[in-house]
Structures are given as C-alpha cells and as structure tokens.
Backbone:
C-alpha cells in the first residue's frame, strides 16, 4: 500500500484529496495545524498529524512521525485579496511564508528519503492565478507563480533520482474555507478609489460562471500522482480548464 502525506487537510481541497486517496486504497497522512479539529475519524490507514508548514521543527517532527512516504502534496495555502497599496506587508509576508517558503521547506525535507529510495512524487498545488492574471490578487499570484518556476526547475535535478514534480492548478473554489481563512476585512484593503473598481469584480466572483469543486482538485491530484507520461501541469476545475483551452 502506498502512502501519501498531504498538507492543509482541515478543509477544502486538501480534505477532499485525503478522502479520495483513502477511499481508493491508499494510506493517508492528513496533516493540519490543529489535529484536534480533524474533520474525519482516523484509522490505521488514515492518520492525522500536526503540521505547520511555516515551522521547521513542526515539519521535522511530522515527517519523523509519518515514517516513509511515497507522495507529498503541498496543498496548504492562504489567500490575500485586495489592493496591494493597502495590503499590510506582514500579511504579504505570511502569504509567502505559507504558500511559497512552506512548500519549498516541505519539498526540501522529503527529498532525502525519495532520493535514497530512487522514487517519489511531489505535487505542488498552486492556482489558476498562474494560468491567467486576475485583478486584486498580486501578492497571492506572486506567491503561487514562484512555485510554478520552482517546480519546473527542480524537476530537472530530481528526475535522474526517480522523483517526479507535478503542478496542480485549481480554479476558484467558493465552497472551501479559503475566503474565510483570513482576518483581513475587505473594506480595509479596498478603500476608494479601489472600492469602486472592485465592486463589479466582487459581484462577478459571487456568481461565477465556472468554478472548481473539491472533487475536481482531488481527481487532478490523483491524475498527477499516477501520471506516467511526464505531464507536468494538471489544471483542476472547469474554470481552470477553460483558461488553458
Ligand atoms: N479556493 C480557491 O479559490 C483556490 C483557488 C486556487 C488555488 N487554491 C489553493 O488550494 C489550496 C487549498 O485551498 P482551499 O481552497 O482548500 O482553502 P482552505 O479550505 O482554506 O484550505 C487551506 C488549508 O491550508 C491550511 N493551512 C493554512 N496555513 C497553513 C500552515 N501554515 N501550515 C499548514 N497548513 C496551513 C489550512 O489549515 P488551518 O485549519 O490550519 O487554517 C487549510 O486546511 C491552497 O494552496 C490555495 O491557495 C484555492
């Protein structure tokens, strides 16, 4: 039985990906910052471990407790929506600490065991914001676009060691906890003149023509992990697929 470790499994895309792999016969290590709030019952093949991707000690302890894994999914992430001019620099740093440096730190930490075994898959969950440019998301887009370049470059040096790097690019998922996982108030980051500019954008986001479900992302991660063709990108969700088309 193969083992997958997924970051950010308390809700949304990570939670559904954990459920999908578990339901399909994998041993799953579902990690989250607060395991006492785990939204599923644990079993021998579904373990929950504490992991904060911004904390090197937390990463080391979680990987020690996890034991050997075959696949790492870097899914943990936070958003930041608003005008850059009014986005607090500390919040921007938090976004890069989690989305960018957290992904890099997790990747660096699992490489030794994958290289020694000559096998492993690392899936980095970025965003459809890397496939097209969206307004009022500059800092967030930068944090995810950095991981696109990071992943593509790293793939070269890890391929000879049997390690595959994959990118899953989800579209807008209004049903996850993503929009709620912030203490930033929209009015604070969208004062005039940005407020008037943002109004039609927010209205369109409230009624998206196409969007992404948790199941779309779980299936894309599954495809990425099982891919034998060398395909590096896996857009997930109707809106992300439309951007690629
Ligand atoms: N929903 C969208 O519209 C959308 C679109 C494109 C890409 N994405 C990306 O998809 C991924 C999953 O997002 P989602 O929509 O499923 O949002 P979500 O429901 O908020 O899930 C994000 C997860 O990341 C975890 N997390 C945040 N900071 C963390 C940290 N420092 N260490 C470990 N875990 C941390 C959260 O856990 P806690 O319980 O600890 O907060 C949560 O489990 C993210 O990388 C996001 O950028 C989302």
Residues:
């Amino acid at each position: 039985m193969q083992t997958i470790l997924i970051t950010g499994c308390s809700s949304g895309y990570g939670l559904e990906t954990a459920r999908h792999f578990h339901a399909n016969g994998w041993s799953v290590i579902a990690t989250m910052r607060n395991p006492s709030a785990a939204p599923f019952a644990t079993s021998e093949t579904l373990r929950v471990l504490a992991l904060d991707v911004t904390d090197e000690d937390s990463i080391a302890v979680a990987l020690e407790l996890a034991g050997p894994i075959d696949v790492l999914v870097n899914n943990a992430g936070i958003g930041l929506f608003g005008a850059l001019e009014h986005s607090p620099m500390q919040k921007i740093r938090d976004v890069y600490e989690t989305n960018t440096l957290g992904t890099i730190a997790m990747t660096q930490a699992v490489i030794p065991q994958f290289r020694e075994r000559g096998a492993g898959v690392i899936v980095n969950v970025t965003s459809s914001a890397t496939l097209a440019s969206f307004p009022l998301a500059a800092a967030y887009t930068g944090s995810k676009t950095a991981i696109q370049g990071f992943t593509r470059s790293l793939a070269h040096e890890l391929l000879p060691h049997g390690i595959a790097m994959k990118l899953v690019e989800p579209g807008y998922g209004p049903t996850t906890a993503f929009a709620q996982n912030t203490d930033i108030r929209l009015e604070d980051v969208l004062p005039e003149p940005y407020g008037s500019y943002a109004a039609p954008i927010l209205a369109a986001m409230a009624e998206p023509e196409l969007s992404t479900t948790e199941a779309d992302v779980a299936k894309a991660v599954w495809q990425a992990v099982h891919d034998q063709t060398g395909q590096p990108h896996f857009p997930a969700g109707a809106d992300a697929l439309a951007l690629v088309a």
Q: What stands out?
A: Residues 3-244 form a domain with the Rossmann fold fold (CATH 3.40.50.720).
